[in-house]
Design a protein that fits this description.
Number of strands: 29
CATH architecture of the largest domain: 7 Propeller
Radius of gyration: 25 Å
Protein name: Glycosyl hydrolase
Organism: Candidatus Acidiferrum panamense
Low-confidence stretches: none
Signal peptide: 1-27
InterPro entries: Sialidase_sf, Sortilin_N, WD40/YVTN_repeat-like_dom_sf, Xyloglucanase_GH74
Number of helices: 1
CATH superfamily of the largest domain: YVTN repeat-like/Quinoprotein amine dehydrogenase
Keywords: Hydrolase, Repeat, Signal
Length: 406
């Protein structure tokens, strides 16, 4: 009896497969001309999505740019009232870093691939350059870096650029570390490389002396089921010769390793003052008053180190060496060298990016998980994020009504 049932089941399954094959072969083919005139169009919603990269233009007070993790590069010339997409024709839409050349604001560099390595991240294909303020773009290399933490442009020479490349998030590769170009992206030198697991997450100039740079190296990687943040070679590195050679900063007040993710910033008001936000077990906000030789732990508030692999961002104010900003679930500011912080009322939560106008520190643009937002009064008021159709969607569906609802 059981044998007969198995035979019958197999027979029915075979007949079912044959029926499906017949139906498919006889299915009516739709003439492509029927839908050939249809084009994609934006129907909204105009809601901002996650942003890790922002910048303004010091010489153009109403011009700003942001890079979304799933929406490409956007530009405003009216102080955030409206935004225009600049990157729709490029093959990638995940932006990790963006920088405008101070000496020529028509020159923009974009590092693709987000470096805040959450589980659902998108990778990029290197660095893009525009010489016409974002109208057109050219990929200038570093295609296998995949995730870029920072891009900085020499203040006096738009052809000198440094890139902090994290590298592959899901496996080892050698295209990671700090890269430098001196010819506008035609060629690149890997100037700081440690191993195929440790990449660069941040790089900054000394604002008063661009021959001096600081970089943060991080062994950060993940799999679909786990995440690693921290390794033996994590650390802060300093170069005194335009990035040609580097020295690791250790001891003298810095915590023991593994250090994990690090954010670093040099004060524009006093180049001897550095801030470093360090993930380590004994980490927190550290400050140096002698150019990075000796350090002191200023603040170990856990609010600034939670989900450190996703945040760990710090910026020194360009005019006041005792003013410093930290981005985490909120955007925080200290006016007493990091001892205490107030939370600014920037919209949305989970903050990742901040640009401070070096000539007017009241002028800010912030990037967070709800988009980009601008303040011109030092963070008291902010522009809307409901004019940026960059939100990341996980599902979409339409019903059968006419007109249909989405």
């Amino acid at each position: 009896m059981n044998c007969d049932r198995r035979v019958l089941a197999r027979l029915l399954a075979t007949l079912g497969m044959l029926l499906v094959a017949v139906l498919v072969s006889n299915a009516q083919q739709i003439d492509p001309k029927t839908y050939g005139g249809m084009k994609w169009r934006l129907i909204g919603p105009f809601r901002g999505g996650r942003v890790l990269a922002v910048t303004g233009v010091p010489s153009q007070p109403n011009t700003y740019y942001f890079g979304a993790t799933g929406g490409g590069v956007w530009k405003t010339t009216d102080g955030g009232i409206s935004w225009d997409p600049l990157f729709d024709k490029q093959p990638v839409s995940s932006i990790g870093a963006i920088a405008v050349a101070d000496s020529d604001p028509n020159v923009i560099y974009v590092g693709t691939g987000e470096a805040c390595i959450r589980g659902n991240l998108s990778f990029g294909d290197g660095v893009y350059k525009s010489t016409d303020a974002g109208k057109t773009w050219t990929n200038v290399g570093l295609k296998d870096t995949r995730h870029v933490g920072a891009v900085i442009v020499h203040p006096a020479n738009p052809d000198i650029v440094f890139v902090a490349a994290l590298g592959h998030a899901y496996g080892p590769n050698t295209d990671r570390g700090v890269f430098r170009t001196r010819d506008g992206g035609k060629t690149w030198d890997k100037v700081l490389y440690l191993d195929d697991r440790t990449g660069a997450i941040d790089v900054v100039f000394d604002p008063q002396n661009p021959h001096i740079l600081f970089a943060a190296m991080w062994e950060g990687w993940r799999t679909p089921w786990t995440l690693n943040s921290g390794g033996a070679k994590d650390g802060l590195y300093r170069s005194n010769d335009d990035g040609t050679t580097w020295k690791r900063l250790e001891g003298d007040g810095l915590p023991p390793g593994p250090l994990g993710r690090i954010g670093v910033s040099v004060s524009g008001a006093d180049a001897n003052v550095l801030y470093a936000l360090i993930e380590a077990r004994k980490g927190g906000l550290y400050r140096s008053d002698d150019g990075g030789t000796k350090w002191s732990l200023i603040n170990d508030d856990h609010r600034f180190r939670q989900r450190a692999w996703y945040f760990t961002h710090v910026w020194a104010d360009p005019k006041d060496s005792n003013k410093v900003y930290i981005a985490n679930t909120g955007l925080y500011r200290s006016i007493d060298a990091g001892k205490t912080f107030e939370r600014l009322n920037a919209p949305h939560g989970d903050h990742h990016a901040l640009w401070i106008d070096p000539g007017n520190p009241n002028r800010l643009i912030n990037g967070n998980d709800g988009g980009a937002t601008i303040s011109i009064d030092g963070g008291k008021n902010w522009s809307t994020q409901n004019n940026q159709p960059t939100a990341q969607f996980y599902h979409v569906a339409a019903d059968n009504d006419f007109l249909y609802r989405v």
